Input
Amino acid sequence: MIASPEMAAPQRPTFPAASWPKRRRPQLPVLAVGGRALVVCPNEPVHRVALTEANGTGAVGTLADGAEITIVAWHARGSSGWRYQVRSSDGTVEGWLSAVNLRPIPALVAPTTRDQAHR
Output
């Protein structure tokens, strides 16, 4: 039996890609568990940030702007971004921070042989 045009499967409407809403991804650092980072307090007048419990409530301590930390774990929180469990470099405080309060430590570049020859 030959299919007639009336029996053709309906097609989904297509929309040009330009009409799709653009998702803005936040420019937040992606940090590895076990890695190190620095605390950033851009909007805090006291230059300290509170560490919270895993559920985001109850402060368990604070860290100063520029403090070096170790990433212990991470958790995605939907539209509010990532949260990282961090431990201070001296091991005295551990808690959760938003990714907006962290930045990677700049990598040190070892001098090349050519750079050493010109010293």
